[in-house]
């Protein structure tokens, strides 16, 4: 399969003010897509424990860039020559999400918070602004399909880099992530160690992520995009290159020895199954069988350990611990059902480790917060789905299906770990959510006369 030709609609001029036009394919030195790609590199290639000195985890370099994107989006809204206006449903979903967080924040303040909870609530609100900044700038700021694909290529490269770090950790029992410390940054917390798992002498690794589950889940979300470029890159060498990257990413998912990671990969492939032809489905099944055989040879005992984790889940302390938390969740929910205790206030060191994002949101932000989070997922799936139906090129349809898979994965894994507590996962989701809004915009029926992207930062 080869890449489609340049979209003719991207060559149309865009009205930015009365009598003033610009091209959607205007080349600039530093545009939104470039900044987002840089953010992705920082998010995946630097250890998650690295922060700007004197800051919290909101001071991760990638998150600092995200805050800059939020400021950029707000400033761009003030000038029609910077921002090309047009409808964008994702803005309303993010407004609902922000309002729910602010109402929950006020509810927490009125409850009266100890200093530790108050600080955590402030931190969560700050990260929320960073999250929203990435979502909105990806949705409104990426100019065209070409720039969107370049962002996703960088995403696949960065995910492959993280996967290689994890594979080195697993194969050589050597934490190479310790060598990625950048001068000028400081380590906020201990990096994930090599946690023993199973009876075969196996251990879990986290790459550059802060946790093993996060590592495997974000890589699982990257696999459909790697497959996309392995199928649709214009050159044969490019297709082989991305096929190799995808193989590396997929191989790194099980080495975290995480049920959630395996579940995420299975869900992502199930969603993509419906976007593939029967021939491609058979090919992917054959590749999967070969990969499982190679894994059995290269990492003996890994598949058996993963199998026992699923078959003996009812005897796993981590599973029984999750179910035992339901009574406490019911108690807290009954106290403040609508707005919750306050975002981020359910601190594990003070209360319990609640490995369920949906229940975490229910306790901390209440029914309103859960509805806002669900609205974000539904909006993104609907926008990517509409873009899939509107698209005429097979490449675009496949890319939209990959964006849908990331949302479905996020919905399901939210029931297995507190996903928004891990910034690499949360901001990967923010990127995919924003790009779902972008593809909706690209395929809008009146695309020839309207758009919604930031014009430029520097000429």
Automatic annotation (TrEMBL):
The main place the protein resides is membrane
Its placement in the membrane is given as: Multi-pass membrane protein
Q: Which InterPro entries match?
A: O-antigen_ligase-rel_domated (IPR007016), WaaL-like (IPR051533)
UniProt keyword list: Ligase, Membrane, Transmembrane, Transmembrane helix
Q: Which GO terms describe its molecular function?
A: ligase activity
Query: Sorted alphabetically, which PANTHER family does this protein's record hold?
Result: LIPOPOLYSACCHARIDE BIOSYNTHESIS PROTEIN PA4999-RELATED, TEICHURONIC ACID BIOSYNTHESIS PROTEIN TUAE
Keyword Ligase tagged? yes
Q: Which organism is it from?
A: Actinoplanes flavus
Q: Which residues cross the membrane?
A: 33-52, 58-78, 90-110, 122-139, 151-172, 209-229, 241-257, 263-278, 285-302, 358-378, 399-417, 423-442
**Can you say what this protein is called?**
O-antigen ligase family protein
Q: Cellular location of this protein? A: Membrane
Keyword Transmembrane found:
yes
Where in the sequence is the signal peptide annotated?
A: none
Start and end residues of each O-antigen ligase-related domain:
246-373
The domain of life for this entry's organism is: Bacteria
């Amino acid at each position: 399969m080869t890449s489609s030709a340049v979209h003719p609609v991207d060559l149309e001029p865009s009205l930015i003010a009365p009598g003033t036009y610009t091209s959607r394919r205007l080349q600039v030195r530093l545009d939104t897509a470039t900044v987002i790609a840089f953010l992705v590199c920082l998010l995946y290639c630097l250890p998650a424990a690295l922060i700007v000195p004197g800051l919290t985890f909101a001071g991760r370099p990638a998150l600092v860039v995200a805050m800059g994107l939020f400021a950029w989006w707000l400033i761009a809204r003030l000038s029609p020559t910077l921002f090309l206006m047009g409808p964008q449903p994702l803005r309303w979903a993010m407004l609902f999400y922000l309002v729910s967080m602010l109402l929950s924040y006020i509810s927490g303040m009125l409850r009266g918070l100890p200093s530790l909870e108050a600080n955590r609530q402030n931190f969560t609100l700050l990260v929320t602004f960073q999250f929203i900044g990435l979502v909105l700038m990806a949705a409104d700021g990426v100019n065209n399909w070409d720039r969107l694909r370049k962002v996703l290529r960088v995403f696949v490269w960065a995910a492959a880099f993280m996967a290689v770090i994890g594979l080195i950790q697993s194969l050589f029992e050597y934490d190479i992530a310790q060598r990625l410390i950048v001068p000028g940054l400081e380590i906020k917390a201990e990096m994930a160690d090599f946690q023993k798992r199973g009876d075969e002498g196996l251990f879990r690794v986290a790459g550059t992520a802060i946790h093993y589950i996060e590592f495997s889940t974000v890589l699982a979300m990257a696999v459909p995009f790697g497959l996309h470029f392995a199928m649709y890159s214009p050159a044969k060498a490019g297709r082989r290159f991305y096929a190799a990257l995808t193989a590396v990413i997929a191989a790194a998912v099980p080495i975290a020895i995480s049920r959630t990671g395996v579940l995420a990969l299975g869900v992502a492939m199930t969603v993509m199954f419906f976007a593939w032809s029967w021939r491609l489905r058979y090919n992917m099944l054959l590749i999967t069988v070969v990969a499982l055989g190679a894994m059995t040879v290269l990492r003996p005992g890994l598949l058996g350990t993963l199998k026992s984790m699923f078959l003996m889940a009812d005897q796993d302390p981590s599973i029984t611990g999750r179910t035992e938390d339901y009574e406490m969740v019911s108690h807290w929910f009954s106290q403040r059902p609508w707005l919750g205790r306050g975002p981020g206030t359910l601190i594990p060191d003070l209360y319990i480790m609640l490995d369920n994002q949906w229940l975490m949101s229910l306790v901390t932000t209440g029914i309103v917060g859960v509805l806002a989070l669900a609205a974000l997922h539904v909006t993104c799936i609907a926008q990517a789905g509409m873009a899939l139906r509107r698209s005429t090129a097979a490449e675009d349809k496949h890319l939209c299906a990959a964006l849908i898979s990331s949302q479905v994965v996020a919905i399901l894994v939210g029931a297995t770990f507190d996903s928004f507590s891990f910034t690499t996962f949360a901001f990967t989701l923010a990127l995919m959510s924003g790009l779902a809004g972008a593809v909706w915009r690209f395929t809008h029926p009146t695309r020839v006369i309207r758009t919604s992207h930031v014009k430029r930062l520097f000429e």
